[in-house]
Write a structure and sequence with these properties.
Elements (H helix, E strand, L loop, with lengths): L2 E2 H4 L9 E4 L7 E2 L1 E4 L13 E5 L8 H14 L3 E4 L10 H10 L3 E3 L6 H35 L3 H13 L3 E5 L4 E5 L12 H11 L1 H6 L6 E2 L11 E8 L2 E9 L7 H41 L5 H10 L7 E9 L2 H7 L5 H18 L7 E6 L2 E7 L3 H21 L5 E5 L3 E2 L4 H19 L4 E3 L5 H7 L4 H9 L1 H11 L3 H10 L4 H8 L3 H15 L6 H13 L5 H7 L3
Parallel strand pairs: 4-5, 5-6, 6-7, 16-18
Antiparallel strand pairs: 1-3, 2-7, 8-9, 8-12, 10-11, 11-12, 13-15, 13-16, 13-17, 14-15
Helix pairs in contact: 2-3, 4-5, 4-8, 5-8, 11-12, 17-18, 18-19
């Protein structure tokens, strides 16, 4: 905190000083006072100085005087004082013109006042201001630290910052999720509708710029938030060199002063500490929840009461109506081949982004969620008691897929959801159904599919019969022969059959979808009839093959690979 040129002129020793040029810069802030001894003094300036001289080096060189004024202004010098007497009777007119041009306050100092008479009072003010700032800094730090030590979390830190700055404050993580936001209640300005979303949208648009600025230091974005009519000041939060999010203050109620900016920087370090604490708690809880969910999915428990009690310690109610979902990366192996230049760190970063997106989306889901990350998939267990929760869950999955599509455009994910059950013994069944829904959804709708088991229609009945000996026998007698022939002869009869039915048995469309000649399709269809002994012109026999293809979703892994398009 400095003193403005205008305020410095109120000091008794400078009462007789005259501002002869550059009046537009009287609100420049003085942070130091220095005496000019050499003509090249500008290169030693750091900005904010009140520079004074008797003018010995300037008296006979108009070009030097011009260059000096422009150089000092460019360096951000607060003001330039000249003491007439031995070398100047008065400040040269050319210097006044140049000072007016660049807005550098040019002061004619009283000739009978020693430099020390005004330098010492200015330094006393600067030191007192600095002591005041240090005291305020300690108070701000202690207040924010007290919030953390009381375990009140990010919302309380955000509220304390908002009160200190007298403006709205937000804490946003690296996935652009708003972790906390506060609009000060004691101000007259009202919060516009969806102001948080507007700010996040602007920050996402300036992501690269934000990543390049110093962490835990305030930075004025200069955003013209037309919807809100205010600017934004942000401080990136970083932990061990890794960007974690932003702390932001919206200047909607008043312009931030030096104390407010100091509070913002202190708060960013406090938020970093809270992030570290929350991450440690989250990792420990995630591991415990993951182990419990793994036991539930595999049915690896003897007494229901034990797992119910374990879940209750994690604030999760296993007595509710529950459903399992599986989120899986489409063709992850193909992605790895395509991104062969990426190392394992990139793979882990991708998986972490997906897990973070799922975790963040389900933070406010009723009853919470238990998540288990394995390989390229995430399995979750949530409550699903009624239609409203089903609609909410669908919206959550769509939000996750949309957000990941924006962050990882080269990846696609699909979701399978089992049926809701009451009773922990049925979690395993819901999990198997979720896997089936994921698999069949891709077969029916392609990548980026969201499939609930209950929506599978006839596939549900086939799923119930997947372990039936009659189903396996029927499958082997029909499609099984084609699969064996393809494997032995490196042909694509099963793939041809799939495209044939998808195109309503139209030979021309089938040929186009397979990028082969129509005659090749005719040949393959005849070969299929020959191997299976079925007549493709007979509706009943054709239905047998169509039914076998549906059965393949539960039995024939080779068929799935044949139609999966990556």
């Amino acid at each position: 905190m400095g003193i403005t040129v205008r305020q410095a002129l109120e000091i008794s020793a400078l009462k007789k000083a005259r501002v002869v040029g550059g009046h537009q810069g009287l609100d420049n802030v003085i942070t130091f006072v220095n005496i000019m001894e050499v003509p090249q003094v500008a290169k030693w300036m750091k900005g904010g100085e009140l520079l004074v001289t008797a003018g010995f080096t300037l008296k006979d060189n108009a070009q030097l005087r011009r260059n000096l004024i422009y150089d000092l202004a460019q360096k951000g010098v607060a003001a330039f004082g000249i003491k007439p007497g031995q070398y100047f009777l008065q400040v040269p007119e050319d210097m006044i013109e140049h000072a007016n041009a660049v807005g550098l306050p040019l002061i004619e100092l009283p000739p009978d006042v020693p430099y020390m008479d005004f330098m010492i009072p200015i330094f006393e003010i600067l030191i007192n201001n600095q002591l005041y700032l240090l005291k305020k800094s300690e108070e701000i730090h202690n207040r924010l630290l007290e919030v953390v030590l009381k375990g009140q979390g990010l919302p309380s830190i955000c509220q304390a910052l908002s009160q200190l700055a007298g403006n709205p404050a937000l804490i946003i993580d690296r996935a652009s999720n708003i972790l906390a936001c506060t609009w000060p209640a004691f101000t007259e300005c009202e919060a516009p509708e969806k102001w948080e979303e507007v700010i996040v949208t602007h920050l996402e648009g300036r992501l690269q710029e934000l990543l390049s600025i110093d962490p835990h230091r305030w930075h004025r974005m200069g955003l013209a938030l037309e919807e809100i009519g205010a600017d934004l000041v942000v401080a990136p939060v970083e932990i061990n060199g890794s960007f974690q999010g932003w702390l932001a203050i919206l200047e909607s109620c008043r312009v931030l002063d030096e104390q407010d900016l100091m509070a913002l920087e202190h708060a960013s370090t406090i938020v970093a500490l809270e992030f570290v604490k929350e991450k440690a708690v989250f990792e420990a809880e995630r591991q415990i929840r993951g182990e419990l969910l793994e036991d539930l999915l595999g049915g690896n428990f003897q007494y229901e009461e034990v797992v119910i009690r374990r879940a209750s310690h994690l604030n999760f109610n296993l007595n509710a109506r529950l459903v399992v979902f599986v989120i899986d990366i489409d063709c992850f192996e193909r992605y790895l081949l395509r991104e062969a230049g990426k190392d394992e760190n990139h793979v882990q970063t991708v998986k972490a982004e997906i897990h973070q997106a799922v975790h963040s989306a389900l933070l406010d889901y009723p009853g919470g969620a238990m998540l288990l990350a394995k390989s390229d998939s995430i399995t979750g267990l949530v409550r699903l008691s009624n239609k409203n929760e089903e609609r909410l869950l669908r919206r959550k999955f769509n939000d996750i897929m949309e957000k990941l599509a924006g962050k990882l455009p080269k990846l696609k994910i699909s979701v399978g959801v089992g049926r809701p059950f009451s009773g922990v013994r049925f979690v395993k069944d819901s999990y198997q159904e979720a896997l089936a829904a994921l698999q069949i959804g891709r077969f029916m709708h392609g990548h980026s599919s969201l499939t609930f088991f209950e929506e599978l229609g006839p596939y549900r009945f086939l799923y119930e019969l997947k372990d039936s000996p009659a189903m396996h026998g029927f499958y082997r007698e029909t499609l099984g022969k084609l699969i064996s022939y393809d494997e032995q002869n490196n042909t694509e009869l099963v793939k041809t059959l799939i495209h044939y039915f998808k195109n309503d048995c139209n030979l021309r469309l089938t040929a186009e979808s397979l990028y082969i000649h129509k005659n090749s399709v005719i040949y393959r269809i005849k070969k299929i009839e020959e191997i299976t002994g079925l007549n493709m012109n007979d509706p009943d026999e054709r239905f047998n093959l169509q039914l076998s293809l549906k059965l393949s979703q539960f039995i024939g892994e080779s068929v799935i690979k044949a139609v999966e398009v990556c």
